[in-house]
Amino acid sequence: MAPSLLATAGGLLLLFSFSSAQIRGDNLATCSPNDGFGKYCPTTCGVADYMLNYWARVDHELDSMEKSLEIVTNLTREADETITYMKDSTTSAQKSQQDVYFKKSSSMLDDILRFEKAIIAQEQQIYDLQNIIESNERRMGELKQLSIQLQQKCTEPCQDTVAIQTTTGTDCQDIANKGASTSGLYYVKPINAKEQFLVYCEIDNFGRGFTVLQRRRDGSVDFHKDWNQYKNGFGYLSPDDTTEFWLGNEKIHLLTASNTMPTVLRIELVDWEGNKKYSDYNMFRLGSEADMYRLTYGFHFGGDAGDAFDGFDFGDDPSDKFYTSHNGMQFSTFDRDNDKYDGNCAMQDGSGWWMNRCHAAHLNGKYYTGGRYTEKDAGEFGYDNGIIWVTWHNRWYSLKETTMKIIPLSRITAGGGQQAGAKQFGGLGDA
Ligand SMILES: [Ca+2]
């Protein structure tokens, strides 16, 4: 057990040395909820938790081992006393030189032999236990050493190996308006936000700053997450836009709800043949957590990928389109069922999404390399659970890459209309 713990600790140390290259979006229970995006060395929390857990367990094991040792020692002492007593009795019996005593003393000698054997066995046990204690103490020493090294590492200021741009603003367009012209990681603080948080800003040659909400690229991040993870965000932000993430419902709410100007949600999609399409929704907004992060938008604003948010007539039932539309739907995760279905769409499809009964668009779905999948591939429930935009590819085709990003409406129209937006595809799929 202990060697594997050591190996794990070593692994942690390694993880620690390399983790500064990426920014964790996970929120550990012992970290403050706002330590998600934008804080370095988040593994410090993990290391501290791990060490704390480990000490408690080892202490407990040592305690119980010491107790066993004490019991064995007591037994030995009792046996010793018995032998002494028996030896004394034998001696006095032999002295008396009487037959009856002689017989008694023979059986006593047998008893003594038996006891001596027992003592030898117990002494061996004690010896083994002492060895275990010694080797545990040695390991404790090594772990203490490791813990000291880790603590020293943790007290050092984390090395900023990720380039974070210095301009800040309420969102990426605000940042672009202040002259920032490089895509990358920026801190934003929407009007109602208590704290700033990190986002990836996609800034194009027209001076347009898209704030990116979601990225799927290669299936490296599992999107089967619970309510709190979708609330706080998960995955990784990267300065070169190579990683997958969900920015977090609370942040998306803050970015959209406090905006007085209409916001466009742009959805960009890439299929497995390398084709790219997009879809725009104007007046996009995410409600608060009290309203279960309800999705609302004013209207579909164009794009060659079609309007999957409006639902789709699959041909199964006349109500298909109505029950697969997404405008006005609350957010659901497997542990928070806010959908319009008797069952639990998010559980069946393994994602967090604005589920109806259930979906025509499903960009947080399961990643299927190659695109095409079947009911069998979909696992336990067998429903269409891929990355779906059904007005482009059917529900048994899972897209290769997706992006969800927002920008003020004025910037879309000022940039030469929607087509300018389509041309500036943000390098999606070109990486
Ligand atoms: Ca339900």
Major beta sheet summary: 11 strands, mixed
| Shape call | elongated
Going by CATH, the homologous superfamily of the domain at 165-413 would be Gamma Fibrinogen, chain A, domain 1
Structural class: alpha+beta
Terminal CA distance = 44 Å
Radius of gyration: 34 Å
- Uncertain regions spanning at least 5 consecutive residues: 1-44, 416-431
Top-tier CATH class of the domain at 165-413: Alpha Beta
Number of extended strands: 15
Gross CATH architecture of the domain at 165-413: Alpha-Beta Complex
Overall description:
Its main location: secreted. It is found in: Secreted. One of its GO terms (molecular function) is extracellular matrix structural constituent. With 431 residues, this protein is of the alpha+beta class. The protein has a domain of 249 residues: Gamma Fibrinogen, chain A, domain 1 (Gamma Fibrinogen, Chain A, domain 1), CATH 3.90.215.10. The strands form 3 sheets. Strands 1, 2, 3, 4, 5, 6, 7, 8, 9, 12 and 15 form an 11-stranded mixed β-sheet that branches. Strands 10-11 form a two-stranded antiparallel sheet. It has a two-stranded antiparallel sheet with strand order 13-14. The longest helix has 57 residues. It starts with a helix and ends in an 8-residue tail after the last helix. The N terminus and C terminus are likely disordered. The structure holds calcium ion (CA). The site of calcium ion has 5 residues, from loops. Calcium ion binds next to loops.
